[in-house]
Amino acid sequence: MGTSAAAAISQMAVFAALVAVLGQVAAIPVGPVPITLQTLGVTLAGAVLGPWRGAGAMVLLNLLAAAGLPLLSQGTGGLGVYAGPTAGFALGWIPAAFVVGLIVQYRWPLRWWRTTLGTVLGGIVVLYACGVPWMALNLGLSLHEAAAANLVFIPGDLAKTVFAILITHSLARAYPSPFSYAQRRRR
Question: Model pTM greater than 0.85?
Fold first, then answer.
């Protein structure tokens, strides 16, 4: 295994761990879906690592959680979690990180407008498009009822988007090496 492959795997593991930790910090139960900082980590994974590595970090996290490690919000894990109302959100982290990374790292250097667009589309729109239908199906709600129940999360998700944008641009200036996807596309 080359050093770039080892670095990529290490970066994905770090972001999987970050999302797991953010699910334990200040998790606030609000009905069947708790308020956590995990979506901040998902958004950062895509924005910093790019589409493939960001999505890979979320695949890794979901595989470890499915294997039974208590990595999801409030220390949950195991296959049973994927039968619950939050499964669509957890699995939605994969395409969410991919979309964030694809838009944010489309070209180097990073641009504020692209980062904003990517974090909103991937970190909110794609995530809700995956999570809300599964929640509706799982809880026997209409799609409209499930979407209405998730409105409480929008202000927090917008705040996490602002933090993700600021953190992403600060990291790109201070530590540009994880942003290799965008740098390769520059050529």
Answer: yes
Which regions in the chain score pLDDT beneath 50?
none
**Domain assignment present for 51:** yes
Identify whether 105 is part of a domain.
yes
In the structure encoding, which two tokens stand for residue 116, read together? Answer: 């904003």
pLDDT one-digit tens code per residue, 86-127: 999 999 999 999 999 999 999 878 899 999 999 999 999 999
Q: What is the largest CA-CA distance in the chain?
A: 50
Q: Is residue 187 part of a domain?
A: no
- Contact status, residue 119 vs residue 161, Cβ threshold 8 Å: yes
Domain count for the chain: 1
- C-alpha 95: how far from its chain's center? 8
Range of the domain at 95: 3-182
**Cα gap 63→79, rounded to integer Å:** 10
Q: Which CATH number do you get for residue 55?
A: 1.10.1760.20
Q: How far is CA 77 from CA 36, 51, 126, in A?
A: 15, 25, 23
Angstrom distance (rounded) from CA 50 to CA 73:
24
